[in-house]
Each structure stands twice: as C-alpha cells, then as structure tokens.
Write a structure and sequence with these properties.
Shape: globular
Bound molecules: 6-phosphogluconic acid
Strand order of the largest sheet: 1-10-9-6-2-3-5
Strand content: 15-25%
Length: 225
C-alpha cells in the first residue's frame, strides 16, 4: 500500500485515469462528490478513450439523468465532453437493487469472464469508512460468490437503494486507487488505512489480491492517519 499526501490529489488521479484510458484499459469509476474535479481535469486533457471501457463501482437506484446518479455525475464531468469516448458499462439503477445487480453481474461476466480484472479502479471513502456502497453493519459487505450486490438499504445519505461491486470484485483490480479529501474523512482514513486497520471498516478489506493499492489524500484527510 502506498499512501501519498498531495495538496491537490485530483491532478494525480486524473493522470492515472488518462494513462489507463490511452492504453485501452478496463477502468472502474466511482461516484460521490470527491472524484468530480479529477474527472473534469481528465476530460480537459482530451485523450483518446476509444479503446477503453468504463465501469462503475456502485450506483444509486435512480434514473441515469437523476441528480443523485453516479453515472450522471461521471458523464457530465468526464465522459460526455470527450471527443473520443470509451465504451461505457453503467449500472442500471433504474432497475432497482436486485435486478440492477443481476444485470451488471451478467454484463461483467460476458465482457470480462468469471474472474474479471480491471486495470484501474478508482474508489472513494465515506465518513463512516464505507466503500462503493458497502456499508459497515450492512450485510452486503460480507457477500462472496457474487461480483455485484443489490443494496436495498443504504447505510447513510443519500438514502436510496444501491447497486455495488462486492469486496471480492473490488479486490480483483490490478491497481486500486482511493481518492479521499477533506477533514470529515480523517477518522475514516485512519480506520481504513491505519496500522492496524479497523476491521469494521469495509474499506479496510479492499486490498488487491494481486495488484497495487494507492491512496491519495489531501492534507486534511491525512490529519489522523
Ligand atoms: C456513492 C459512492 C461512495 C462514495 C463515498 C464518498 O455512491 O456514494 O460511490 O462510495 O465514494 O461515499 O463520497 P463523497 O466523495 O461524496 O464524500
């Protein structure tokens, strides 16, 4: 695990995304508010993303043009401004948690096989140390044997059902990259990446099986680590 503290980690994350895209990689994007600036910076570099495929770590069960949709945010900030856009496999939140999870599981297995390996997977960290839509004290964090789980009840706001990659799927990437900013995440950073990590934090279990883990923090998020 490599932890890097930068004044503006969004720049470094944008570099990683652009590099993976230009190499035609399988890229997992995340939602929430933290990655938006990294997406905008990556879009401004206007690389050729046409050989790449974009996936999502999790989604809220809303239509794809809804203000809470992770796809809508990534699409506005990154995907739609690109001159040479990637192939996009979005989670269909509008299907609801169970059907949406089933459809995404099928899409992953069809395109990447039963043991998918994404090249770069960007993740955020919740203030409660959740990752993707795997929340502490909720059963989906313990799901094995499936790549995607339906999450009928979220562990925090926004309180809408979710679809999420499971921990085994999240750990299957070649390069897992966390982007965490802001003082309200400092305690969660300690729980997820401290020594020892707190096992009640779902993010503490995202450790690539055979790959690299890079954590980008700004100074506020790094305050308690
Ligand atoms: C979501 C996410 C989630 C997010 C963290 C951090 O759909 O909510 O994908 O896991 O990454 O909650 O979110 P913020 O960046 O908004 O703090």
């Amino acid at each position: 695990m490599e932890i890097t503290v930068l004044e503006d980690p969004a720049e470094a994350v944008a570099d990683l995304l652009v590099e993976a895209a230009a190499a035609g990689g399988q890229i997992v994007l995340t939602g929430g508010s933290s990655p938006k600036r990294a997406y905008e910076i990556a879009a401004a570099r206007d690389a050729d993303w046409s050989g790449a495929t974009v996936w999502f770590s999790d989604e809220r069960c809303v239509p794809p043009d809804h203000e809470l949709s992770n796809f809508a945010m990534a699409n506005a900030a990154l995907l739609s401004p690109l001159a040479s856009p990637p192939h996009v496999e979005r989670m269909q939140g509008e299907l609801g948690p169970e059907a949406g999870a089933g459809a995404y599981e099928a899409a992953i297995r069809e395109r990447l096989g039963n043991e998918p390996r994404w090249d770069v997977e960007l993740l955020g960290l919740g203030p409660d140390a959740h990752v993707a839509s795997l929340f502490p004290a909720k059963p989906e964090k313990d799901v094995t044997g499936r790549l995607v789980a339906g999450v009928p009840e979220a562990g925090m706001e926004p309180q809408v059902p979710r679809i999420s990659l499971t921990l085994p799927a999240l750990c299957a990437a070649r390069h897992v990259v966390f982007l965490v900013t802001g003082a309200e995440k400092a305690e969660a950073v300690r729980r997820a990446f401290g020594d020892p990590p707190d096992p009640t934090s779902p993010a503490a279990h995202v450790r690539p099986t055979t790959g690299d883990l890079t954590v980008f923090l700004d100074p506020s998020a790094a305050a308690s680590w």
